[in-house]
């Protein structure tokens, strides 16, 4: 019998399609290595846009949660994700919109109650590694920020038998907690390439995706995961999200040969914020120090 520890990766995201950005290649890579993979999605994305040319936006809007859930499941299949769980909250919409005040939205959820929902999933799946967003939710979305808060709380409480007792599930302690990141250098490069491949969209996004505001200083990046071998799967997962990612999106455009050769989009970056095992200061494996 093998004495190697069972490895499990769980990522906590806010909406369908978030799983592709920052963790898409990582999911496929670790699944290919035999690691159990779990995606937790807080909402079904009711407040998303509708870019699918085959849908009538007026007709589709009331059932967008159902549509996006099916997109999520197809994406998860493309990424070889072993299990998908939805926390069951409503999409809060972008910061400052009326949807932020909906009583069932994730943004308004009681922190202890939302943490208990995630703790039960942690105890069921027993992840070794947890991933979520940074304190700013990468770009300030209320649901991303809430996912950060809930995941950090759950990391510390899942092993406490007095919190959200689960008689049929033993307490469980994940060993490492990561936040998704894009280095400032990488984001500057991304903006440069986007201006070349999709100049009109790039102008619209310049203020929203400011590398100096949203990028992580290179010195703070602890972990870079090589996902160059999994770009086709990542792109196929993006194609599943027809309502959210337009067909002419920068993220779906074929890369010039020189960019493909240099591995553009080929690495996903993280900041390790908690570790209960000794691990290298700089890693190329989320399970460094565990296996």
Main sheet overview: 7 strands, mixed
Order of helices and strands: EHEHHEHEHHEHHHEHHE
Beta percentage is 15-25%
Helical fraction? 25-40%
Overall mean confidence score, pLDDT:
92
- Report the strand count: 7
End-to-end Cα distance, whole Å, is 16 Å
Examine the coordinates and then state which fold CATH places here, giving the name of the CATH topology: Rossmann fold
What can be said about this structure in brief?
By secondary structure, this protein is an alpha/beta fold. The chain has helices at 24-32, 57-60, 64-78, 111-125, 137-140, 142-157, 184-197, 199-205, 211-214, 231-240, 257-262, and strands at 8-13, 36-43, 83-89, 129-132, 176-181, 223-226, 267-275.
Folded structure, characterized:
- With 291 residues, this protein is of the alpha/beta class.
- The chain has a single domain, classed as LmbE-like (Rossmann fold, 3-Layer(aba) Sandwich), CATH 3.40.50.10320.
- The protein contains eleven helices and seven strands.
- Strands 3-2-1-4-5-7-6 form a seven-stranded mixed beta sheet, with helices on both faces.
- Strand 1, helix 1 (24-32) and strand 2 form a beta-alpha-beta unit.
- Helix 7 packs across helix 8.
- The longest helix has 16 residues, at 142-157.
- The chain is globular and about 55 Å long.
- The relative contact order is 0.17.
- The model has no long low-confidence stretch (mean pLDDT 92).
Outline the secondary-structure elements.
Blueprint: E1 8-13, H1 24-32, E2 36-43, H2 57-60, H3 64-78, E3 83-89, H4 111-125, E4 129-132, H5 137-140, H6 142-157, E5 176-181, H7 184-197, H8 199-205, H9 211-214, E6 223-226, H10 231-240, H11 257-262, E7 267-275
Parallel strand pairs: 1-2, 1-4, 2-3, 4-5
Antiparallel strand pairs: 5-7, 6-7
